[in-house]
Specification:
By secondary structure, this protein is α+β, with helices and mostly antiparallel strands. The chain folds into three domains: about 190 residues, no CATH class; about 140 residues, no CATH class; about 70 residues, Homeodomain-like (Arc Repressor Mutant, subunit A), CATH 1.10.10.60. It is about 50% helix and about 5% strand. The chain has 21 helices and eight strands. The strands form three sheets. It has a four-stranded mixed beta sheet with strand order 3-2-5-6, covered by helices on one side. A two-stranded antiparallel ribbon has the order 1-4. It has a two-stranded antiparallel sheet with strand order 7-8. A hairpin with a 5-residue loop joins strand 7 and strand 8. Helix 5 packs across helix 7 and helix 11 crosses helix 12.
């Protein structure tokens, strides 16, 4: 039969976010330090926005359009029409100028390097969005620090799709980036080299613990080869990079600026936003008057209307960002008051989906809101993600927080006899006596996440 080519119409439903919604999502996701940069950029690009020069000392970010405070002489726009009157530049204090200069001259970090490669990767736009979420969860060492399932839930896709995008990112430079543990990191690098000793790959894949202990003779017996071959394979492995993101660290101290501060009052907790260095915004009244001026050219009026719309969007989205964060913090404080008052070991099981339900938003909104943000508490400066903890069911039918279990494991190991350290099985048995039916492999998982070595490496010789 002859082959025929036909064009058939197909209906397809796709969710397309408006520019305003995209801006709202982006502003919600960034921490306060980056928000300051975005506001400064918007002030330069949009003359309808202006900064109130002298904010009240104890007032949070005010975004009231059309305030009664007299407007400055004008703004400098990045694309003013020919008929728009020139406006003198606002004075910028030395501290702010130094900050802006540092943004221009600072070297590229690992995240930016990966996003640059993602942009030119052979992926659909939807997969690139997933890739951005994956890269956002890769730490400074180059390791993926978030579960695939949680990233998939936040992006509203299947875990298999996130896994597929992750495999693509693991082909990016530097080799080994995007790995979930040391074993995967080294395997990615070996595969990237092409021609490698198969023995080296087998050692990394199945005998990494023995390699770390330099048990070459035992490895040789198990692999049915001679110690000299194991030695050569080990030398090849030593040339691999266990921290692929190291080359993008610039040996400068990284200071964490809390986005929010929690202060315990007599009856409740106060949620204070760290908006001290955020410019306070309003609409420039000078250009608003030009809309009703009969002498203003039509093209200028069109320009001002477009910029006015963008300015109102920006102000409203900043307001919405703070309102959303405040509602989320109210739920976190309410549900984790025991942790805030008593510290580690007093976490309540809490998932992002539960917070999303109480706030009335999607789980992905909560995930974006808490991403890369820190809160100053009486227990120290903590990442917002520390307030979440998965629930573990016990044989008695109650649920305990995984964070509490980790804290117990850490305490048991800290108090153990260094001459006879506790094995993972012994820890599991002790937890079981406390009513927590935790399996040995779960203990091993938690111990690894806390970067605590196994018992034979903790033993004092």
């Amino acid at each position: 039969m002859p082959i025929q080519v036909q064009q058939l119409p197909r209906q397809e439903h796709r969710l397309i976010l408006s520019p305003r919604m995209q801006q709202a999502i982006h502003l919600l996701q960034v921490p306060t330090q980056e928000l300051q940069t975005l506001i400064q950029k918007e002030l330069v690009q949009n003359p309808l926005l202006e900064e109130i020069q002298v904010p009240p000392p104890d007032e949070n970010l005010s975004a009231a359009a059309g305030a009664d405070t007299p407007a400055p002489e004008g703004e400098v726009a990045s694309e003013p029409p020919p008929s728009l009157p020139p406006a003198p530049a606002r004075p910028i204090d030395r501290e702010k100028e130094a900050f802006l200069q540092s943004l221009i001259t600072r070297p590229q970090n690992l995240t930016e390097h990966l996003l640059q490669q993602l942009e030119i990767a052979a992926l659909s736009e939807e997969d690139k969005e997933i890739g951005e979420a994956v890269i956002g969860n890769i730490d400074e060492n180059g390791y993926l620090v978030e579960d695939i399932e949680r990233i998939a839930s936040g992006a509203g896709v299947e875990p298999a799709r996130v896994e597929s995008v992750l495999k693509m990112i693991q082909t990016f430079h530097p080799a080994g980036v995007g790995a979930r543990d040391l074993r995967e990191c080294l395997l990615i690098q070996l595969d990237a080299k092409g021609e490698i000793d198969p023995l080296a790959r087998e050692i990394v894949d199945k005998h990494l613990d023995k390699l770390a202990e330099r048990k070459y003779a035992q490895l040789a017996r198990e692999l049915r080869t001679i110690p000299a071959r194991v030695q050569r394979a080990a030398e090849e492995i030593t040339f691999l990079e266990p921290r692929p993101g190291r080359q993008f660290s610039h040996d400068q101290p990284q200071y964490v600026t809390p986005d929010i501060k929690l202060v315990k009052g007599k009856d409740d907790w106060q949620i204070i936003f760290n908006n001290e260095y955020l410019p306070r915004l309003r609409i420039n009244r000078r250009y608003l008057k030009m809309l009703n001026d009969g002498d203003t050219p039509p093209e200028t009026i069109d320009y001002i209307r477009r910029k006015l719309k963008g300015a109102k969007w920006f102000i409203d989205n900043i307001k919405q960002r703070e309102a959303t964060l405040r509602r989320i913090m109210e739920v976190l404080v309410s549900r984790q008051e025991g942790f805030l008052e008593k510290g580690a070991g007093h976490h309540a099981p809490l998932r992002m989906s539960e917070v999303a339900g109480e706030v009335g938003v999607h789980e992905s909104t909560v995930s974006r809101a808490v991403s890369s943000k820190y809160v100053d508490t009486p227990r120290g400066v903590l990442p917002l993600k520390d307030f979440f903890s998965t629930a573990i069911s016990t044989p008695g039918g109650r649920s305990v927080s995984s964070s509490n279990v980790k804290n117990l494991v850490k305490t048991m190991i800290a108090d153990e006899d260094p001459d006879h350290p506790l094995s993972d099985q012994e820890i599991a048995e002790r937890l079981s006596k406390r009513g927590m039916g935790i399996k040995r492999r779960t203990v091993a998982k938690y111990r690894t996440e806390m970067k605590i070595p196994p018992s034979h490496l903790r033993r004092r010789h």
